[in-house]
């Protein structure tokens, strides 16, 4: 057999990594060989001993929190950052994705502009919201995102408990993930008011007004409701190890739950919040150094299912406004372009996790959880989504050079020791270090596929969703 394309390098599969090659036809992986020179291609690309990973998947991106960003810029940033699929959040400005007509418009925009593949989250309106779930599920959303904290009453509202329970039951019927921003609205609203009255507006007060209990009380409530409703629950951006303890306990009781943390919570602490101020303002806030260590232990022990960026493409003005009053700055930071190289340095090079586990945390596990059945690993039959990482190729992050519209990052001027050499989406080269972004868009809208429900649930209960044991 002759392949359209053969990619050679040090290949990372769920079973391990080896020097070999991948045969690709029509955007699909048709063969994986653990020796080079076995497969014949019209085109053969040899990456030497560079790592050839499955395309990474970021389940937590906000393209339209800042409308200056949009699909084209965010997906270009993703391609450069080694992310071949992402799931875009529904809290779009000006209109959230809570009905089929706005969803269909967004799908059309993705198919027109995307450089990488994109799945879409839906959400529900503040009042009696669960009624929109059936039609959005039929239209192909990858899951539903709700919040227990009111970021914005229309676009990003707090949902009341009775509506949450109803939404949990409905999403469970579709075997779709229901994910939550879990912070205790009552507590932190009061703490912020108190701090403002007392004139406590320095950066550290962002942390002090959102102590860990504001996260853990919200997480416990959601876990309990998921155990009663049978929901397929996912907790986004966990910042504290105690939340993971609760997730583990409920998993042991048979509750179908997963949890993610974000790269910021593993790499930054309250020291960075003090140092960088508004640039390091994210929700939930950065935690104390010892709390970050405890969270990292959970990750290394296999208790965190996957890692996301929570990419929020703010620009300088969104942050400088909070220079003398942290509460005025926007929350969030960009991540699509830098998360994978930063985490590769930290987790693989410094902490010694295996390339296969790295691929599980950033590709296989999110693909499984969101039923992206063609994605997540280098295996026969999957999409040829491939990312090449060159080790020992240092570069400096420059926030003014992002392909995202965002130009503020606490990692500005940080040196990274590996780089993304090439990114392929379904066999198309969408980015290379030499040539930059390929301007022919190759990305498209993707949606959940068919899976066996029992196996799907067992994957979540087995410690982390990447392993099918
Ligand atoms: Zn988010």
Highest-level CATH class of the largest domain: Alpha Beta
Ligands, deduplicated? zinc ion
The main β sheet shows up as: 8 strands, mixed
List low-pLDDT spans. none
Q: What's the overall average pLDDT, rounded? A: 96
Main features:
Urease, subunit C, domain 1, single chain, 2 domains, eight-stranded mixed beta sheet, 469 residues, TIM Barrel, 16 strands, DHOase/Allantoinase_Hydrolase, Metal-dep_hydrolase_composite, binds zinc ion, allantoinase activity, Amidohydro-rel, alpha/beta
What can you tell me about this protein's structure?
One of its GO terms (biological process) is purine nucleobase catabolic process. One of its GO terms (cellular component) is cytoplasm. This is Amidohydrolase-related domain-containing protein. The chain has 469 residues and is of the alpha/beta class. It folds into two domains: 2-52 and 381-437, Urease, subunit C, domain 1; 55-371, Metal-dependent hydrolases (TIM Barrel, Alpha-Beta Barrel). Helix content is 33%, strand content 24%. The protein has 15 helices and 16 strands. The chain has helices at residues 70-80, 100-113, 133-138, 161-173, 185-197, 204-208, 212-229, 241-252, 263-267, 270-276, 289-300, 316-320, 339-350, 355-369, 453-461; strands at 2-13, 16-25, 28-33, 40-54, 56-61, 83-88, 117-122, 143-147, 177-181, 232-235, 257-262, 306-308, 386-396, 415-425, 428-432, 436-437. It has an eight-stranded mixed sheet with strand order 3-2-1-4-13-14-15-16. Strands 5-6-7-8-9-10-11-12 form an eight-stranded parallel sheet. Helix 7 (212-229) packs parallel to helix 8. The protein starts with a strand and ends in an 8-residue tail after the last helix. The relative contact order is 0.17. Bound molecules: zinc ion (ZN). Zinc ion binds next to loops.
